[in-house]
Specification:
The chain is of the alpha/beta class. It has 2 domains: 218 residues, Spore Coat Polysaccharide Biosynthesis Protein SpsA, Chain A, CATH 3.90.550.10; 102 residues, Rossmann fold (3-Layer(aba) Sandwich), CATH 3.40.50. Helices cover 34% and strands 22% of the residues. It is built from 12 helices and 13 strands. The strands form 2 sheets. An 8-stranded mixed β-sheet has the order 3-2-1-4-7-6-8-5, with helices on both faces. Strands 11-12-10-9-13 form a 5-stranded mixed β-sheet. Keywords: Glycosyltransferase, Transferase.
Length: 339
Amino acid sequence: MFEPVVTVTMPCRDCADTVGRAMESILAQSLRAIEVVAVDDGSEDNTGAVLDEFARRDDRVRVVHAAHGGVAVAANTAMGLARGRYIARMDADDEMLPERLAAQARLLDEHPEIGLAGSRIRFGGDRHRCAGYARYVDWTNTLLTHEAISLNRFVEFPVPNPSIMCRRACVETHGPYRDGDFPEDYELLLRWLEAGVRMAKVDAELLVWNDPPDRLSRTHPRYRADAFYRVKAQYLARWLASYNRNHPEVHILGSGRTTRKRADMLLEHGVRFAAYYDVDPRKIGHVIGGIEVRPREAVPPPGEAFCLPYVASRGAREDIADFLDGRGFVLGRDYLPVA
């Protein structure tokens, strides 16, 4: 009986125009010992027929036709049928480069301590029209080691979902995607990191990550910014309880309305704010909800304050990191970027 090394799992819905290209890129992989489990999630277009044709042509392809249950349910269905020791995630509107599966499987083979492997990715959209997404891709491509991924987990999603390959044993031990009003891929990564799963990336572009206007991350409510911050607050609060020497007290860098709205989600989990800090003289001295806005220079020294930079504007995160590093703060010990 054929035993694949890698099972590629691909949830599909109404993607007849792109799924053929995605499938061709999978079946053209240099690693031949693979299988593809594609779940047609109740498509209303010709997606199912396209998938069935690939299954007719290549016996490594298995197609499941399911009632519409959503991407998390479809992805979990595919993972539940996986026979490979490694499971690779794929989206039906992206393309694998030829060495993707071989390179990621090799990383996992050579590093048994790693449970989840990603890679650098190539942005497949318009860098001018979709500048924000392009900057996100550039940022995530700098996070290659477990330490970089772990310390930046609360900034953004550090390992784009369609680039992931993991050990099947990790799914069995730590659970698959959870379905809810939150980004299921980000929640899985936070949960696995919290459980101690180590992660790393192949230092090569192995996936073309396309950015169509109807991509779920652009259109579905579970991927809105507030949904990200809600699930982030839950896991961040638990991280702080374990690593913040001054828990439950933190110092918030930034005091704008967006910063406060996102940081306030931590209050629901028992975290307490000592102060806000800002560089805008018009904000300094204000008291918001009983919490004073102080000049950034008033941040207590390392050891006396754990800082959470909640400023996401371009360049601000780097400026704050330079400031804190210059004061002797150590990333992960004295501060953690969270926006």
